[in-house]
Structures are given as structure tokens and as C-alpha cells.
Amino acid sequence: MESELHQLKGDITELMAAAIRFGQSAMSDVPASVVIAGGTNLLNVSDLSDDLTRLRELFETFERKTELLELLNQSRNAQGVNIFIGEESGVVTLGECSIVTAPYCINGQVVGTLGVVGPTRMAYERVIPIVDITSRLVSSALSYQ
């Protein structure tokens, strides 16, 4: 349980850092961008790493960012956590993945969305609260800067 808590703390810290970087860029009138962190963690997921061609396509999607930006923008308009399982995301290369997203705000105005990409058999009971709490913490941190 102790190692699980340490991992959870690391996950939240990594998500918050990426979301705060994105939030700061949103405040500086920089065009919309996507910050991707921790993509190499997908190499440790056997569901994804067993097919190198599929994994390469997934990383190419991350590099292009366009499809991810569209998905995150779509999630901006929703309340709370959104879950896209497999092909629900509308991104072909994410067909074997799930995306858990939540918008974050500055003083009540939605300025971005953070999300986690993982295998369709990810630990949703763990990831959903992490994304939800992180979006709330980032919103709070950005609103009081």
C-alpha cells in the first residue's frame, strides 16, 4: 500500500506540473498547445508494447498532437471527468487506448483540459480520481496566482 501511495503521489505531481505549464501558456496568449509527459510509461503496458507497429503509430499521434488537441478541446466543454474508451475518442490510433480527461479553469473560466492516455484495461478506479483531483488542484493553483 505504501508503494501504491508513492506511485499515486508521483502520478499526481507529474500531471499537475504538465497542466500548470499548459495553463501558464494559456495565460500568456500563446496559441493552443498540447503538453505530453510520461509517454514512455506506455512501453511498460504489455497490451500496447506487444505490437511495436501500433505503439509507433501511437507515438506518432502524440508527436502530431493535432488529433489530441481536438479531443482535449472537445472535453473542455464538458463538466467534470470524461472517459473515452477505445474508438469512442474518434482517433483511430487510440483504438486500443482509453483517455480520461477533465477541464481546468482560471477564476471559473475553462482554459484547458488535462488527460491520461492508457490501455483500455487501465485501472479506472485509480485514474479517474487522479485526473479529477489534479484538474481541481490545478484550477485552484492557477486561480490564485
From TrEMBL:
Heat-inducible transcription repressor HrcA C-terminal domain segment(s): 2-128
A GO molecular-function descriptor: DNA binding
Keyword Transcription regulation attached: yes
Pfam families xref list: HrcA
Key words, A-Z: Repressor, Transcription, Transcription regulation
InterPro entries in the cross-refs: GAF-like_dom_sf, HrcA, HrcA_C
GO biological process terms held by the UniProt record: negative regulation of DNA-templated transcription
Protein name (record): Heat-inducible transcription repressor
Organism: Pseudogulbenkiania ferrooxidans 2002
